[in-house]
Amino acid sequence: MLKLLKDFLGMTTRPVGPSTALLRPPVRAAIVPKVGDTVWWAKKGVEGHITSLTPGGFVFASGGPCTTPSGKKVAERYSTIVSAADAVWHQDIHCWVVGRGPTPKNVRGQVIQPKPVIIKMGVN
Amino acid sequence: MTSFLYGPGAHAMLVGAQATNPIAFLTDVMQVGLSSSTHVPNKDDTFLDDAGADDFLDGELSGTGYSRFTLSSGKTITYDAANDRVEIDAVDAAWTAIDAGTAAQATVFSQTGGADTARRMICNVDTGGFPIVTNGGDLSLQWHVDGVIQLTV
Description:
A: 124 residues; mainly beta; 2 helices; 10% helix; globular; B: 153 residues; five-stranded antiparallel sheet; three-stranded antiparallel sheet; 8% helix; 29% strand
């Protein structure tokens, strides 16, 4: 009768013990820097984006690209190289934080910089 | 998939006034929208709502902070003689505090037509950071300094 009552109430009659799942270390997906990721340089209080990867880290530039007065050459306003060990991924603000210092509640935002759609009219 | 120009949209834009329904990039209202991977871009598609279950409308983002962005001013078409190409450019697009899922691509289209079944697509862009997970922060789509579209001659 007790078992029927428990089944009716949705209660289990299986013995309760420590869950093995709880004993396993948490599985975390590896987050690796990639070009275009937002970077917050905490010490300087500036935001940038990863422009290229290096064997041990990445290069990021702040301020975005600009056009030189003489033509259409694109130059970064500021760039620096950091070791991946010095960068920590912050999921809440969705960016890499480099160094120590105040972190923003929300960085200026994510940036997409697509390449032009190229059409070629023909080959001479 | 990579960025490309939609065939029917290219035709309507390049032929201009000679076409039955020309697209005038500079004078028509142009917009850009974001869509998820549900949208499977096809160069042969014409409209935002092009029938089927995988066109732009089927995959368009939906949620906080998202709406189609109007490229209202700053549209230019210039010829770059040094590089032998026509450059079609527009203002950058931006969304504030957007939390609307993952954007796999952006689509530029002509807003004229009255309904999505008649609004023609011009190009699809999926480089430079796509796919991107909107996270409640701001998102900006910064077109290349040399234009959204380049027509090399």
